[in-house]
Amino acid sequence: MFLKEDCFRLGHIARLHSFKGEVSIILDVDDPLDYKDLESVFVDYDDKLIPFFLERIQLQKKNFATVKFEDIETEEQAKKLVKRSLYLPLDSLPELDENEFYQFEIEGFKVVDANYGELGTVVKVIDLSGNPLFQIDSNGKEVLIPKQDQFVKSVDWDEEILHLECPEGLIEMYLGEEK
Fold first, then answer.
1. Contacts 24+ apart (CB under 8 A), 174-178
2. Sequence spans of domains, the chain
3. Do residues 43 and 34 touch, judged by C-beta distance below 8 A?
4. 27, burial (CB in 10 Å: exposed 0-12, middle 13-18, buried 19+)
5. Each residue's pLDDT tens digit, 104-127
6. What is the widest separation between alpha-carbon atoms in the chain?
7. CATH fold for domain 4-92
8. Whole-model pTM?
9. CATH homologous superfamily, domain 103-175
10. Distance between CA 122 and CA 139 in Å, rounded?
């Protein structure tokens, strides 16, 4: 049996799609195309990860997909899955380059800006229609920094530090101060 700490959250089942047991899912991932040939997922059912096999998956606009699970044939069966989270094992993630990362991997990392200094901690990455933002807690204040390659200078995996170089004034706009 897989545990949540051995998996990453792929997304969730958003709503019913048809009367034949199909559902619409939202993929909370950087590139939904990486999952176009998905064969199975784990569904979080009362804090237990239950494997479900897919008959088919069809990617839709943005991060939506239509899924037909094996053995889910009716609207009533599919309703029990709506709003549940979907997971995959961590080892199913494609390999990334040194300074690339999956959004969930940097949650809890310390953030240090080249000009400002220590900024705070990554709470999560908010994915807003192709414009992801680092949500950073800076001593109780929220700072949102666009997740853009030109701002990310390096990732120190051993020390769990995300090194950024933000444009002048961006951080101060949130914190109202100069450091």
1. 174/138, 174/141, 174/142, 174/143, 174/144, 175/138, 175/141, 175/143
2. 4-92, 103-175
3. no
4. buried
5. 889 999 999 999 999 999 999 887
6. 60
7. Elongation Factor Tu (Ef-tu); domain 3 (2.40.30)
8. 0.69
9. PRC-barrel domain (2.30.30.240)
10. 12
